[in-house]
Amino acid sequence: MTHTRALASSSLVLLALAASGHARAQDTDAAPSQGGGAQVTVVQVPQAPAPPTQVVVPGYPQPGFNPDGHLPSSSRSTLDTSRSADGFDLLPDPEASETVRGTANGGFVLEGQHVPELHSVRTGDTLWDISSRYYKNPYGWPRLWAQNPQIQNPHWIYPGDQVRLRDSSDSGLPGMRRLLSGERKVAPQTVFLRDTGWLDDKKEDVWGEINGSPADKMLLAAGDDVYVQLDDKHEVAVGQLLTIFRPLVTSGDAAQKGQLISIRGTLRVDRINPQTRMVRGRVVESLDTVERGAKVGPVDRRFVVVSPVTSAEDIEAKIVAALYPHAFYGQHQVVFLDKGEKEGVKPGMRFFALRRGDRWRHTLRAAGKFATMRPVVEDDRPAQTEALAPPADENLFPDETYAELRVLKVREHTATALVTASQHEIERGAFVAARKGY
């Protein structure tokens, strides 16, 4: 019986060793059993590894927290608060793997970015997001919309919808994007008016109006055909490009010669009926939605910054508007003057913004009368104040130059200029002058 128990004990040990597999076994000397001196082997089964401990640094959000998750994509901040770099992303973007290859002022290729033919819409997607993800340009969503005529409203896309990202004829190979032809070279130091422009004449520069379209939708974009009713004063040719725009209403002088406009896109003339003056064209570029009633005409949108030229005479002018109708203008902004070629203005001429007077007193005029009071520190009585001394005759002050402008484009009675330097803000109606010999 004792021998039988010893065999059973040995069998249990062998079974334990066979079942443990990768377990580590440690043999220790044990006291002989009652069944004939058999040794007992102790088997240690390893414990499960402890779960990793996650350390949260005080002052930083919990991992996975998205502070902008409730905002639309176009309103989210660009700061990643989950990093410990105080808002600055010092790591490369894993999605921005493309490389620009090309030559100066020539064509270029974006390599390393694969654009599939279709994108399946997921919850929360917008055309803004899709355009930003694949083309690195969220403002290109109107062109994406134009490639998908099945989308009736660009603000309403649904999970499961298929959005076409490129033509099926495009290979879409990784490392290759569109190769721009040499015809699209842009000269260095070129100022390009993207979505805002200027009309020299409110009537003469408007050649026609978009009256209709064969497309069954209200908002038109690139790729849509339109019908344009031309006026009787101008002639167009097949293949000619015209700018699509809408006039901007500003608070400036209603009698000013020019007109600030919002550029919506570009139209190509395809067919002309000389009897009815009706043109069928195609929208080849859309910066914003194009609607019926938009105006068309030849609008200058590209200006080259020319070298300075010497003025042959003194010319005084006034800033009537700016490219973007802000309250104040500054360096690198485009403004428009009320003097042109008829008044002797030439491209490259330099105008200087001049101001006369005490700037601090001018600032106080908008602050109220209490802003002109000062405490009387020479009087030991409490709360003694006095009004500032009245200003001297500011007409006796010399003119001070606070900004410089360079003329880019000259029309008959207006000119486009670039602010090349400014010490402080420039306002609409500012006085500018070109000096003889400079």
TrEMBL record:
InterPro entries recorded: Bact_Kbp (IPR052196), LysM (IPR018392), LysM_dom_sf (IPR036779)
UniProt entry keywords in alphabetical sequence: Signal
Chain spans, region Disordered: 50-99
Signal peptide: 1-25
Biased composition, class Low complexity, residue ranges: 50-59, 73-84
Cross-referenced PROSITE patterns: LYSM
CDD domains linked to this entry: LysM (cd00118)
Superkingdom as given in the UniProt entry: Bacteria
Domain LysM residues, every copy: 117-165
Protein name (record): LysM peptidoglycan-binding domain-containing protein
